[in-house]
Amino acid sequence: MTLKDVLQEFLNKVGWKDEIQHDDAGNTNWIITDFPIRSQNYRLKLLADEPREQLTIFLISPISIPKHRAKEAAFVLNFINANLALGDLVLEEDGMVLYQWVIDVGGATAAPHQIATLINAAAGAFDEMRVAAIGAAAFSKQPAEEIVDDYKKALFELIKKMQNEKAKEAPSSL
């Protein structure tokens, strides 16, 4: 089964009506579609690269970083990237922020659920706390170090809250 077939099977399973585009020169196939996350419109590109046997995702954030905040944003994105399990966030020269990840399926049979995994990882990279940090890097006057400190504090508070909830659910021992 070609990667284009896997991409089409994924589209069929999730009911997306997007048409697969093809580039003869690179023998690649892709779709580009809108992808909403918490009422914000992201752009999603799924790329099936037949010669390299790779599936790639690009999820483009609606947040654009102004040039004068690029250094602060790069610092924040680097911190976030160090804590992402999969893929990475990229700051393009034009200020566009995107998530990217590649799965090399060389020698294996690709499956539609791998595309779903790519999408779930990309959407997870833009969770509320990360988006808040990226937004602060783009639109505030805060130094990057302060944004990262705020992010860490919010993360620790979330972890503490989750631990407390888990402790409440645990049966008490006598």
What can you see in these coordinates?
This protein has a single domain (3-169), classed as Yope Regulator, Chain: A. It contains five helices and six strands. It has helices at 3-14, 70-82, 112-125, 128-139, 144-169, and strands spanning 21-23, 28-37, 40-49, 54-64, 88-91, 96-104. It has a six-stranded antiparallel sheet with strand order 1-2-3-4-6-5. A hairpin with a 4-residue loop joins β3 and β4. The chain is globular, with a radius of gyration of 19 Å. The chain starts with a helix and ends in a 5-residue tail after the last helix. The model has no long low-confidence stretch (mean pLDDT 94).
Q: How does the SSE layout of this entry go?
A:
Elements: H1 3-14, E1 21-23, E2 28-37, E3 40-49, E4 54-64, H2 70-82, E5 88-91, E6 96-104, H3 112-125, H4 128-139, H5 144-169
Antiparallel strand pairs: 1-2, 2-3, 3-4, 4-6, 5-6
Q: Between the first and last Cα atoms, what is the distance in angstroms?
A: 58 Å
* Quaternary assembly: single chain
**Category from helices, strands and their pairing:** alpha+beta
**Unreliable stretches covering 5 or more consecutive residues:** none
Helix proportion range: 40-55%
CATH fold naming: Yope Regulator, Chain: A
Anisotropy-based shape: globular
CATH level-1 class: Alpha Beta
Main beta sheet:
6 strands, antiparallel
Count the helices. How many?
5
- DSSP strand (E) fraction? 25-35%
Q: How are the strands of the largest sheet arranged?
A: 1-2-3-4-6-5
Mean pLDDT: 94
Question: Any idea what the radius of gyration is?
Answer: 19 Å
Q: What is the number of E strands?
A: 6
CATH architecture: 2-Layer Sandwich
